[in-house]
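Holo prediction — thiamine diphosphate.
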Amino acid sequence: MKHTLSVLVENNPGVLSRISGLFSRRGFNIDSLAVGVTEDKNVSRMTIVVDGDNYTIEQLTKQLNKLIDVIKVTDISKDSVIRELALIKVNASLSTRNEILQIVYIFRAKVIDISKSTMTIEITGNSQKITALEELLQPFGIKEMVRTGAIGLERGQKVIKYTINDEEE
Amino acid sequence: MRMTGAQAIIKSLERNNVKVIFGYPGGAVLPLYDSLMDSSIKHVLVRQEQAAVHEASGYARITGEVGVCMATSGPGATNLVTGIATAYMDSIPIVAITGQVPVEMIGRDVFQEVDITGATEPFCKHNYLVKDARELPRIIAEAFYIASTGRPGPVLVDVPKDVAMEEIDYNYPDRVELRGYKPTYAGHPLQIKRVAKAIEKCSRPVICAGGGVITSNAADEIAQLSQRIKAPVATTLMGIGAFPGDHPLSLGMLGQHGSYAANRAVAMADLLIVIGARLGDRATGSTDTFAANAVIVHIDIDPAEIGKNVNTNIPIVGDVKCTLTELLKYNLKRQDSDWLQDIKAWKDKYHHKGLFCRSLKPGYILTRLSDKVDKDKTVLVTDVGQHQIWAGNYYTVKKPRTFLTSGGLGTMGYGLPAAIGAKLADRNNEVILVTGDGSLQMSLQELALLKQEDLVVKILLFNNNALGMVRELQQQHYNCRYCQVHLTGNPDFCKLAEAYGLPALRVDREDEVDEAIDTLINSKTSVLVEVKTDVNEKTSPCRV
Ligand SMILES: Cc1ncc(C[n+]2csc(CCOP(=O)(O)OP(=O)(O)O)c2C)c(N)n1
């Protein structure tokens, strides 16, 4: 089963390699990993999508927690909003442009660049939505595609706390 | 106070009560060596950096304090790697300080540059590449804190030369604050209560004590628990010494190289209390059948160890001593049974005492040694190989911190430097090294330290002119096709020892054995006793 983990880490040099190293070393399979700084500039937040059974996820969580730079690991698979951004450069001639635009419209995606023979489309959504768009664009010929990997926040008022004093919630 | 980064490091080490550094100099650590001249800290000049880590490790295991070692950038740093990995696998607190090329040179493959934080990351508890000298006091404080608390382990601090030379205002932090690191010491009260309940219900309990018991100084609590619930105690290799080996409730070592009684008892137990052990593959064998009839309690300070290898019924994350102290507050009483009779029968079945008549057999020699030494002050250190297994099985260890071996990594060459570290940690200890001709040659160069530091280490060398352990594997699993296991070019070890200033004697006849052991024990100086050992001596089936 796929799990989405939110990992708050100290924004120290080398932290990304510590985490990616841990994944490969211990044989965990990452579907995606997205990282960026949070509202606190000393803290980065990683969203990691990983495939595995409960044992694997428990081990992974424990191993992540062992890293000194990891502040908090939360499994947000259950009740959260997850989004991914993708850019897709697709073949688009005069004759196919309209058809592509219709697909883009239905997906509430955006065209962000256009040339004589290509269009670049921006889409956000969950992974399935992006994959669905990808499949529909496939027949036109996808020249290039890039995905950010999923990021997510829990729904509602819940936040992941990490201050030094909040012992255990 | 204004001072250089190097001075700040040394001052911070003094703050952490460091008395000895094991190290080897080079260009990138010269600022540190210069500052060291003005310090009261003793520096032990080793002969190879890997040994410096093993020496620091031996020191740490005796004192319970953090062992410190130091090396230069590049090859100095990479030589530390095996030592660091060895310490990591056995949870030994080490702070390793390495020199690094100046900050602005990093990443350009300049002379003696190597990414040592990257290289050691998989087997360090944590590491630092210091880029700003002002951070040095905080980082050293953190390094010692991380190395010595929770589940201990090695921490490496990589210090570029210019950082060591930069002038800073020295401010040592009052306390360490790491929001990502808060080890849990107190076991959860409800879980502890569940253990007490499980004990009430059981009639065939076994305690399995690992290295964590020794780290946590909880041998007394183990002894109390064992007495109170009439539970026999098996130890892991790292747990040897956690329970007196000659106690009627002692089962000896668990696992592949362990005793019949220990393995049998675990298989038949209805309650297994695993304490400060990670239940590695060597200890459990197949995890499907391990302790198949038992409710398993697992107490460990490292949450990641619980449930990693063996399914646990009652997990407790916490310090062994704290948790056992709480558990012992309960009125613990188990169901009556014939359990202890069974245990005794299994122990008697393969009891070896008196089994050996005088011979060159390792079993005889180690049993005799075990009977003769003063266990209160003797530390036995082993290398890695058959002799290690023999020592584990035939030498009876009575106290914590009196048996040192490389358990998790099985690093040949660990023995001599660890023995040196152990002796330096407490010169009142009698330190005996049990080694093999292969292992000894992996750290041979450290013999020079015995003279240099005026140390008395007694060396018992089982010389079979072979990599006995590997040869035994080839004998068993490769149809006696012996490949690259005979050390045909071996030197004359006695002459070699003499060249380093150690008296030495060779034993190749049965009637010389007893006297040689006496000589080894009574010698006032370091001494090497080489025993000619039959290359066909086996470790298995070991049925102590
Ligand atoms: C650094 C290292 N290299 C290789 C091994 C694999 N190995 C395990 S035991 C052993 C042989 C040890 O020989 P020796 O020290 O002579 O001891 P013996 O088994 O003969 O008692 C070897 C090569 C190891 N454990 N460590």
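READOUT: Residues B 383-387, 410-412, 436-439, 462, 464, 466-470 surround thiamine diphosphate (CB under 6 Å).
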